[in-house]
Amino acid sequence: MAKSDVDVVVVGAGFAGMYLLHELRKNGFSSRVLEAGDDVGGTWYWNRYPGARCDIGTTDYQYTWDPELHEQWQWSEKHAAQPEILRYAQFVAKKHDLYSGIDFEVRVEKAAWNDETKQWSVHTSTGETITCRHYVMATGCLSVPKDPDIEGTDRFTGDVYVTGRWPHEGVDFTGKRVAVIGTGSSAIQSMPHIAAQAKEMVVFQRTPNFSMPAFNGPPPQDRLDRLATDRAAYEAEARMSPTGVPMPMATVSALAVSRDEAFAMLEKSWQRGELLTIGGTFTDVGINRAANDVVCEFMRSKIREVVKDPEVAETLSPRDFAYSTKRPCMDTNYYEMFNLPHVRLVDIRKHKIKSVTETGIDFGDESKEFDAIVYATGFDAMTGALVNVDITGKNGITLKKKWESGPLTYLGLTTVGFPNFYMITGPGSPSVLSNMMVSIEQHVEWIRDALVDMRAKGFDTIEPTPEAEEDWRVHCTDCADITLFQDTNSWYMGANVPGKPRVLFPYIGGVGRYRRICTEAQQRGFLGFELQGNGKRQLNPGPVRLMQPDVEMMLDVMATLELPPIEAMSPAEARGFMDASAAMRAPGPDVGEIVDGTFPAAAGDLEYRIYRPASAGPHPIVVYYHGGGWVLGSHTSDDPLCRDLCKRADVMIISVNYRHAPEARFPAAVDDAWDALAWVADNAEQLGGDANRIAVAGWSAGGNLAAVVAQMARDNAGPKLRGQLLLTPVTDGSRQSASYTENGEGYVLTKNVMEWFWNHYASAEDRKHVKASPLLAESLANLPPAMIVTGQFDPLRDEGNAYARALADAGVDVKRIQARGHIHTSITMVDMLPSGQSIRAKMASGLRGFFAD
Ligand code: NAP
Question: Does ligand 1 come within 6 angstroms of the Cβ of 151?
Answer without folding.
Answer: no
